[in-house]
Amino acid sequence: MGQQARPAVTPLGIAVLALLEERPMHPYEMYQLLIARREDVLVKVRPGSLYHTVARLAEQHMVQSEGVDREGNRPERTTYRITEGGRTALRARIAEIVRYPAPEYPMFPVALAEAHNLPKDDVLALLRERVGHLEADRADVATMITWADERRVPRRYTVTLPYLHAMLGAEIDWVNRFLDELASGALEWETFDAHTGAREADHEHHHIWSSRDEAELPPTRHGAVGTPPP
């Protein structure tokens, strides 16, 4: 029989295993630490999903119970520690993600690809609003970077912050350039009837993506973008 595939570790699973690499702890403490460290910016953290993740990791023998404690009238809390199997899975999963730029399917490119279904003025207004949100997010990250620097937090623990800051800056720059191109008329846009909202036909310039276009697309290195090589 072939070798059994290693269970996939979810982003929240990575966060849990990484916490348990620091020391044993119970799920509520994990939740508190993830929120305090603002790791909810990186992974979706909910108490219910965190408890479910810990239970699943226990079923997969990546973590195991170390004991049950109770303080006063509080509910019992089970403390978990990482196993050797969990440590191996954590390191392998981190290495895999760092090595391969796998597709993450963010929502913005999907909406951007179909933004031509909206009137030009709407797209301009929506993207300008988006830039405002992005700038606020980038300012928050800058504040976190300053906070970490002032407290001399070792940079190996905060490398995600300058990465996020740079990625937000890159998106802001791109969207602003796109806004300039669209607002100036350099980028042709579809027109819509002001009363009915229906798209107005443009027989001279309108082009529908065809199967012939698909056949002429240049190949990527490994087929789908970001797909690891065999």
Automatic annotation (TrEMBL):
It comes from the Bacteria. It holds the Pfam family PadR. Signal peptide: none annotated. Residues 200-215 have a biased composition (Basic and acidic residues). Residues 200-230 are annotated as: Disordered. InterPro entries: Tscrpt_reg_PadR_N, WH-like_DNA-bd_sf, WH_DNA-bd_sf. Gene3D superfamilies: Winged helix-like DNA-binding domain superfamily/Winged helix DNA-binding domain. Residues 16-91 form the Transcription regulator PadR N-terminal domain. PANTHER family: TRANSCRIPTION REGULATOR, PADR-LIKE FAMILY, TRANSCRIPTIONAL REGULATOR YQJI. This is PadR family transcriptional regulator. It comes from Nocardia brasiliensis (strain ATCC 700358 / HUJEG-1).
